[in-house]
Amino acid sequence: MQIYKTVKKIFEEDQLDRRIIRKQTLASKKTSLIEKLKKHDYQRLSFIKKILQNYPHLSKKILFYAGIILQHSKNLEDYRLAAKLAQKSYKLGYRPAKKLYQAAVDRLLLKTIGKQKYGTHFKEIEGKRIFLPSDKKLVNPLL
């Protein structure tokens, strides 16, 4: 139970950091927040990887929270692992993990071939969401 509370707290801090940045409008302040976020992301990733190494049997929610943290990495293997954790979480019955799975697969595909399969990623330009190129026919890179 303690692991669940710890991982959930890390997940909630991660999401709060990202909400604060999205709400910030001053460019100089946003840059400072992004630098802090990078440092926090590194710390969170390190912690989550230790949890995954030391605890092979985790609950569906812990798998989901860990996947969210991993997909904020810059490492392709972390994206792949995030998708696998999301897939496992979903198979265990945690339905929100489906969207994480799709987002992690799309991130992996965008970084490797420049297109996404599920259409989960976009850029914001002048307040409008511009979805990045997608192709529903792409093969899942985890298979």
Biggest beta sheet attributes: 2 strands, antiparallel
Radius of gyration: 16 Å
Output the helix-strand order: HHHHHEE
Specify the overall morphology.
Answer: globular
Distance between the termini: 33 Å
> What number is the mean pLDDT?
91
Question: How are the strands of the largest sheet arranged?
Answer: 1-2
Q: Can you count the beta strands?
A: 2
Which stretches are poorly predicted, pLDDT < 50 over at least 5 residues?
none
Helical content class: 55-70%
SS class: mainly alpha
Strand content: 5-15%
Instruction: Count helical runs.
Output: 5
Describe the protein's architecture and organization.
This protein is mostly helical. The model has no long low-confidence stretch (mean pLDDT 91). A two-stranded antiparallel ribbon has the order 1-2. Helix 1 (2-23) runs antiparallel to helix 2, helix 1 (2-23) runs parallel beside helix 3 (60-71) and helix 3 (60-71) packs antiparallel against helix 4. It has helices at residues 2-23, 27-54, 60-71, 76-91, 97-113, and strands spanning 122-125, 128-131. The chain has a domain at 2-96. 66% of the residues lie in helices and 6% in strands.
Brief descriptors of the model:
5 helices; 143 residues; 2 strands; mainly alpha
Topology:
Layout: H1 2-23, H2 27-54, H3 60-71, H4 76-91, H5 97-113, E1 122-125, E2 128-131
Antiparallel strand pairs: 1-2
Helix pairs in contact: 1-2, 1-3, 3-4, 3-5, 4-5
Summarize the structure.
This protein is mainly α. It has helices spanning 2-23, 27-54, 60-71, 76-91, 97-113, and strands at 122-125, 128-131.
